[in-house]
Structures are given as C-alpha cells and as structure tokens.
C-alpha cells in the first residue's frame, strides 16, 4: 500500500496567525454541534437518514490566515464562515478541508462524503466534524445545512472525466442532480456556493491556446456537459435569485498527499509514483498532449481567494484559473534530467486520449488575476520538484515494490 504520512498539512508559504474567537460564538457553535450529535438524525432515525458522526469535543477556535484573513472577516460580519464541503475525501477535498480548518477553525468546517475516512488519509484535523452526505439526498443535505448553521458550501462531489465516460448515467446523477440540490439549498438558505468547473467544460471547437473565459464550449464528454450545465445554472440562479454562486475552471491538479479520482490528467501524478517505484511508466496519453496543470497549493489558495473575495470585486461568476501547461514528453525529460536518468517512459494511448484532445492546451486567466488577485506560485519546474521530492519521501528506500505500483490509482483501469 502507499505509505502516506498521516496528518500532513498542506504545504503553505504563510504562517497562520491563530486568534481566539469570541466566546459567544464558541458557545453558539458548540451548542449547535451538541444538538446534532444528540438529535434523532444523528443516531439514524426512522426516516433512514444516515447517522452524522460529529466530534463535539472540538473547541471552536478561529485560526485565521494573517494575509487574507482580516479583509475576509470584515466581509463576513466579523466571524469566520461555517462551511460544508461535499466530496471532502477526494483528491482536492482533503487538502481544502485541511486549509479551511486552519483558517476558519476546526469546528467551523464540516467535512462530508459517502465514504468512510480511512486510516492513512492526510487529514490534518481528524477531530473536526465529518458527516455522511450523499449529494443526491436533498433532505439529508438540508438537515446538515440547518443543523450546522452552514454559511458556505464547497461542492466537490463529482465523477471526473474518465470514470464519467464509463458510467454516464451515474455521472449525470451525481454531477447534475447533486449540483441542483446544493444550488437550490443555497437559494433557500442564502449560502455562498463554490463549485469547481474544469478545462473539461471546453470542447473540440474551443480555441485551444489561451482559451478565454467566454468562448464556444460544446464539450463532447459527459463530464464536460455536466460542468457546463453547472456553470449556466449557477449563473442563472445568481441572476434570477441572487445566489452567491462562484466557480473557477481548474486545470489538472497535481498533489503529493492525495491520489486522483479518475480523470484524464491523472497521468501527471501516476508518473511520479511509477517512476519512483518501478523506474518506468506506460503513459495513457501521447507524448505531445499539452494540457493546463496546477499544483494543489495554488488550487486551494486560489479557491479560497475567490471564496473570500468581496462580492463587488467579481465581474462574473465563472473564472478560468491557470498556472502552467506541459506535455507527457516534457515531464519525461524533466524527470530524466533532474531525478532519474534511466527512467523509461512508454506511450500507450487509450480512450482518454480523445478526451484530452478535446481540451485546451492553455487558459487565459487574466480576469481572475484582475478581479480577485489570482496569481499562481508554481510553474512546471516547481511543480515537478514538489511532486518528485514529496512522493519520494512517501516510499521507504529499498528494493522496488511492484505491488505498490499496482495499487497506484483507480484510473489505470479506467
Ligand atoms: N482533481 C482535478 O484535477 C480536478 C478536479 N476538478 C473538480 O474538483 C472537484 C473535486 O475533484 P477531486 O477531488 O479531484 O475528485 P475525487 O474523485 O478525488 O473526489 C470526489 C469525491 O466525491 C465523492 N462522491 C462521489 N459521489 C458522491 C455522492 N453521491 N455524494 C457525495 N459524495 C460523493 C467521492 O467519494 C469522492 O471522495 C470535482 O468537482 C472535479 O470536477 C476540476 C478540475 C480538475
Ligand atoms: C481536469 C479535470 O477536470 C480532471 N482532472 C479530469 O481529468 O477529469
């Protein structure tokens, strides 16, 4: 099995400054959590809503980030938001919850998923609240939002591009019905809602280089269609009902501590694990396939910047967000030049090649930079360095462990 260091916090370039929060707020939320833990809902009631597992022992301490915190707190009526994160055990959710709990206070960030948090996941604050939440279950979501007095939802539950092509009916349900549920609940309960979009929302007719925010989309994958639906419906709810919907179109995200969930950009993570374990990799994309990519710290930082941005700064609701772009061949060269001279890359393109071919090679994110100050910290060289050194540290030195490579990721079977 992969050996993850437990309780790894996201690498951060800033020292969070912890401030003790008002005692009244502390009492209010602790009371709220106690209520949930002792409610019929929490125990699993006759309505067959699954039990919410909540740690009431968690003190509600507000730890805010020094650089962005003051401004965001002002716009939040001087208290940190209470946030529900759906799909929080996925590649991005784990990292986002870790960072949000550092900034907003452990008890203020409710993690949720349909899976159990297993030992070894990089959860920095395991004492924080975690609940079962199937995003298709509207009454359950509403109950969590009310019981925890949620202000913001980050909707991360989704099926990614490769797995969605394999199970289109399920992907439509999770990605479309799930989003419609959180959007409608955001309208009713006046929540700020963030749902990520993706380079996968674009299609073969989209301009490939420096793709602007507003352009032809026409995706030809189930994943892309569900994401365009999400963008349009979110904008509609904003226009029509004033829902504070926000979205960023992410590139492929690279992470050390968490594994990808079945996408087309997953090769750029798999390659490091295979290189370190077997010194070779069968890449499922052709060498020249250029795709936009981003390191996870940038993704999480940018997401929080957009979430915290004062509403008057936003001139639109969906923004491109970019860092750098590279090809499998360039990654191969970087690994051989700097880390593993004998690394052997083979190219065995599969059905994911067609998906990648329909996506942009680079994004124009100038509006995100202008409106809410987006600026990535990691270019390709810096990403490769973080990935190699971070993943190398996960493997114990010794003989090659082939069984580890076979466990690497769900996507190798996609
Ligand atoms: N990872 C990436 O490179 C990119 C991700 N995104 C978007 O970011 C979001 C998060 O992506 P990842 O963390 O990579 O995905 P992931 O596949 O790693 O995690 C998704 C999580 O959703 C959960 N889930 C599935 N069905 C659910 C349901 N019915 N109810 C509740 N939870 C359910 C899964 O158990 C899983 O933990 C998604 O919306 C994805 O489209 C966008 C662009 C790039
Ligand atoms: C770019 C994405 O949305 C995701 N990583 C995928 O490849 O499906």
TrEMBL record:
EC number, as in UniProt: 1.1.1.103
Organism field: Tieghemiomyces parasiticus
In the record, biological process GO terms are:
L-threonine catabolic process
Give the pathway annotation.
Answer: Amino-acid degradation; L-threonine degradation via oxydo-reductase pathway; glycine from L-threonine: step 1/2
Described purpose of this protein according to its UniProt entry: Catalyzes the NAD(+)-dependent oxidation of L-threonine to 2-amino-3-ketobutyrate, mediating L-threonine catabolism.
Q: What is the name of the protein in this document? A: L-threonine 3-dehydrogenase, mitochondrial
Which taxonomic lineage is given here? Eukaryota, Fungi, Fungi incertae sedis, Zoopagomycota, Kickxellomycotina
UniProt cross-references to SUPFAM superfamilies, sorted A to Z: NAD(P)-binding Rossmann-fold domains
Q: Where is the NAD-dependent epimerase/dehydratase domain?
A: 83-322
The main enzyme category here is oxidoreductase
Recorded hits in Pfam families, A to Z, give: Epimerase
Q: Catalyzes what?
A: L-threonine + NAD(+) = (2S)-2-amino-3-oxobutanoate + NADH + H(+)
For this chain, the family text in UniProt reads: Belongs to the NAD(P)-dependent epimerase/dehydratase family.
Record GO terms (molecular function)? L-threonine 3-dehydrogenase activity
């Amino acid at each position: 099995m992969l050996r993850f260091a437990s309780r790894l916090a996201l690498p951060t370039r800033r020292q969070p400054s912890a401030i003790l929060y008002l005692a009244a707020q502390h009492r209010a939320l602790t009371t709220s959590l106690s209520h949930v833990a002792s409610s019929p809902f929490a125990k699993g009631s006759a309505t067959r809503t699954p039990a919410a597992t909540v740690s009431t022992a968690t003190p509600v301490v507000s730890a805010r980030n020094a650089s962005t915190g003051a401004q965001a707190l002002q716009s939040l009526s001087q208290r940190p938001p209470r946030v529900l994160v759906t799909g929080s055990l996925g590649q991005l959710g784990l990292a986002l919850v870790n960072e949000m709990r550092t900034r907003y206070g452990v008890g203020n960030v409710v993690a949720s998923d349909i899976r159990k948090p297993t030992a070894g996941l990089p959860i920095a604050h395991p004492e924080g609240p975690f609940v079962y939440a199937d995003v298709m279950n509207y009454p359950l979501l509403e109950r969590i939002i009310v019981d925890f007095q949620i202000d913001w939802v980050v909707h991360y539950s989704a099926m990614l591009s490769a797995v969605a092509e394999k199970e289109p009916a399920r992907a439509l349900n999770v990605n479309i019905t799930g989003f419609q549920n959180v959007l409608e609940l955001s309208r009713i309960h006046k929540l700020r809602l963030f749902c990520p979009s993706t380079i996968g929302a674009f299609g073969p007719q989209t301009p490939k280089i420096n793709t602007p925010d507003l352009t032809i989309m026409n995706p030809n994958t189930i994943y892309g269609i569900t994401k365009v639906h999400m963008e349009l419906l979110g904008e509609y709810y904003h226009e029509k009902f004033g829902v504070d919907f926000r979205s960023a179109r992410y590139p492929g995200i690279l992470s050390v501590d968490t594994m990808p969930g079945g996408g087309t950009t997953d090769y750029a993570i798999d390659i490091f694990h295979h290189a370190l374990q077997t010194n070779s990799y069968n890449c499922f994309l052709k060498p020249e396939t250029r795709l936009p990519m981003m390191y996870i710290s940038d993704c999480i930082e940018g997401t929080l910047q957009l979430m915290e941005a004062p509403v008057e700064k936003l001139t639109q609701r969906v923004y491109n967000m970019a860092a750098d772009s590279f090809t499998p061949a360039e990654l191969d060269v970087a690994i051989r030049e700097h880390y593993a001279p004998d690394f052997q890359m083979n190219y065995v393109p599969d059905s994911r090649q067609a998906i990648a071919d329909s996506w942009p090679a680079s994004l124009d994110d100038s509006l995100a930079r202008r409106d809410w100050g987006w600026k990535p910290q990691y270019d390709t060289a810096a990403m490769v360095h973080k990935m190699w050194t971070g993943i190398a540290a996960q493997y114990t030195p010794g003989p090659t462990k082939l069984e580890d490579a076979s466990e690497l990721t769900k996507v190798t079977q996609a």
